[in-house]
Amino acid sequence: MTDSAIRLPQPTHSTLSRRALLGQATCGIGTLALAGLCQQARADHTTPLSPKQPHHTPRAKRMIFLHMRGGPAHMETFEHKPELAKRHGTNGRNGKRKLIASKWRWQQRGESGLWVSDLVKHQARHADKLCVLSGMHTDIANHTPAMLFLHTGSFTFARPSLGSWLLYGLGTDNQNLPGFVSICPPLINGGTSNYGTAFLPSVYQGTAIGDIKTPVRNARIGNISNPRLGTSAQRKQLDLLQSINRDLATRAPYDTRIDGVIQSYELAFRMQAELPQVMDLSSETRSTQQMYGIGEGRRSDNFGRQCLMARRLIEAGVRHVEVCDEFWDQHGGLKKGHQARADATDQPAAALLADLEQRGLLEDTLVLWGGEFGRTADTGRKDLDGRDHNPKGYTMWLAGGGVKGGFQHGATDEFGYASVSGRVHLHDLHATILHLMGLDHTELTYRYGGRDFRLTDVHGQVVEQILA
User: Fold this and answer.
1) Domain for residue 362, yes or no?
2) How far from chain centre, in Å, is Cα 273?
3) Residue 417 is part of which domain span?
4) pLDDT mean over 79-92
5) Which of 187, 198, 434, 445 could be a cystine partner for 158, CB 3.0 to 4.6 Å?
6) Three-class secondary structure of residue 378 per DSSP
């Protein structure tokens, strides 16, 4: 053996005293206890999406937003205007535009006697579940900024979406699925910003399934399956990649995008076992699918699939789901256009309420229906068959999740120009939604750029009158 060879230390034998032996044994017991605690800590390891304690007892645990993009007319759906019918064809307030009566028949519905038009005849059967907000108003009359305002509480700066705030504040119940899903979101009018995180960590961003131009039956989420590697091999491959990502995150702690990538990879790995099954509607009975209006060639097929998928997602533990319709933007061709949108969405929306109720989910699931603004009582068109944008007064409805059913809050004036009572601004709506979900909108904040931000900015009041 050369002098440069490694020499192992030779064992030595010594006699331990009784006291030394007990001392070392005690340290060994402590080490075993520490190992047990570390193992428990790993078992109890939480992620940014783990469920979190709300500020107060929630009325609702989850939420579905039925987004009627483009602005349904309140005087054609949920706010009866008999005076408008009497003045049909006469001059409106500016003297140049003509007032237009509703083009559908109205009836009082259910035990509550809510007025609902025949345009939404399926939803009308659930009048006693609806909390109709007829005093809604917002700040902007153009689609893109109004839609951003509806989703994020701001139309001037990039802000996190409502779903992202809910995920940030509450986490989600199923770690194998996204906590926030947007089904068939629009590609324009704000696009990804409607379900984005802005300055919140990217782990809270919504996961899109398809888009507005892709029928949901053809929609897929990419990169959650591997035809070449089994689960065990994928896990080893991912562990190597994640070790590199974590090393990068340690060297660049200011870049929250890295953590978002790490979390998204982990979620994608877990999703491959569960999400395809949730998205597969074939396991639903034929009667359930028919209830949602699902069927080849039916106008309601696409939105019906979206609503049924939304029910399956929240039933599986997803916190917030948005489903999106096409455009209720009929400046002309009002009767044909609004009827087409109702044919596509009315039955599925009603089926969702019925399905949630029969499964015992409606009580703690908040459902929101509506668009980014309403429509005008008058028009400049000679054929009196169109309505323009109206942010000053419109209607949305809530159901389930701790709100009063068969209840109408607020109203616009006799023609529907502007909200005059029970006025609810979008900031108020957001504050109320957060309250119902167990969050104080003034306390749900995120520090960014030297100041605390919140969904409602410095505005918003909880609408106590609608709480059950």
Assistant:
1) yes
2) 23
3) 62-223+275-466
4) 97
5) 198
6) strand
